[in-house]
Amino acid sequence: MQKIPLIIFDETLRDGEQQAGLFFNYETKQSLARLIAQSGVHRIDIMPAISETEERLVQSLVKEGFGSIITPATMIGKQFIDQAKACGVERIILFNAVSDRLLFLRDPDIRRSVLLHGKTVDDNIPQVILNHVRQSMVNRVLESLRYATSEEIGLKVEFAAEDASRADFDFLVQCICEFNPYIEHFMLCDTVGILSPDKTYGWINNLLKATNYPPLAVHFHNDLGMALENTLQALVAGASMVSGTFGGIGERAGNVALDQVLNGLRLRFGVEVEGIDYDVVARVTDYLTQVGARAALPYSNAALRHETGIHINSFLQDPKSYSIFSYEELEIWFGKCSGASNFQYLFEKRLQKTLSRDHYNQMRLAIKSLSTKEERCFTTEEVVELFEQGALNV
Fold first, then answer.
1. For 311-353, what is each residue's pLDDT tens digit?
2. pLDDT digits (tens, 9 = 90+) for 6-38
3. Contacts with 166 (C-beta within 8 Å, 6 or more apart), sequence order
4. Measured torsion, CA atoms of residues 71, 73, 75, 81, in degrees rounded to the nearest 10
5. What is the Cα–Cα distance from 231 to 196, expressed in whole angstroms?
6. What is the number of other CB atoms lying within 10 angstroms of the CB of residue 224?
7. Measured at the alpha carbon of residue 367, what is the angle toward residues 361 and 373, in degrees to the nearest 5?
8. CA quadruple 91, 93, 94, 98: dihedral sign
9. Which of 24, 241, 304, 345 could form a disulfide with 7, with the two C-beta atoms 3.0–4.6 Å apart?
10. pLDDT at 250 over 80
11. Which residues are 330's β-sheet partners?
């Protein structure tokens, strides 16, 4: 069977575990990381900035000899790059939003503006402001890319363009061209799962032509149930790296399932990916089944749950930030990936009670600690009960 040099980027232990209600303890994550490495994947993402436990796991795996494939998701900023570098890894994946919707929400100048704070891109924002927000992001990313790849730091870098499928095409072309000298791949993320197969093929094909065919990667979500076919069409169009999770686990309806991509290429197109042990791939999915990790079905109630703090923070300001569906009311979960915004949403949107930001942060620390101790996540009802019992004081 023909072999192809496709790079497989595994997100099971980072994006996969961000599935609301899913919790892997340290030993499970360590075992999964070793097993996933045996499958022959080329990158494994674990994010040390989430907690001290994640940081310790990355350091442990590097000491075991996995430093060349452990590729931590890393936020923009020297402190986060330094943290990843200190873990001993050789490569990181920096990530930042590229869509006007998310950039506008997160831009520090917008957040400080009395006239613009609380607005969204749906509020007829002048193009000159959007252009300023875009360029500000480009400048910040370039600063981090130059720092990470400098002789002093010496890291190899991938870049993940969050919400790329909702970004302006010409701006996306600009980002690819400006970031390309510093990165190995520019990863296009369909963060809220809006793509279809025909749109995907045309999008990738047009981007490659417009940017002189740099190495592009894809990271697709399954909100509409089309992540697998979208990914295959992206590969046909010329993408050279695929990011996903085993079993398709992940936020909402999950990520593209790497096992399905690999077997889809094998059975539908008659090609295998170089270096992949397909027997071990099957063992990884079997292991996930044993520990009860299953992706939520598209359009199901379980796919409407949210736990990640940065997502909840965005929902507070823009209901369209991390969903293509309309919500009567978000179902919020709490765990080690939660932020202060989870508590702010719970108290101000659900309980109609406003607490101080310090109080929200105290509860965030308490729930992270409790989640790690009890090795699980918590529903809204459980968190309300814990609050009433005084168990969220730190």
1. 999 988 899 999 888 876 788 999 988 999 999 999 998 899 9
2. 999 999 999 999 999 999 999 999 999 999 999
3. 99, 100, 101, 191, 192, 194
4. -20
5. 10
6. 18
7. 140
8. positive
9. 241
10. yes
11. none
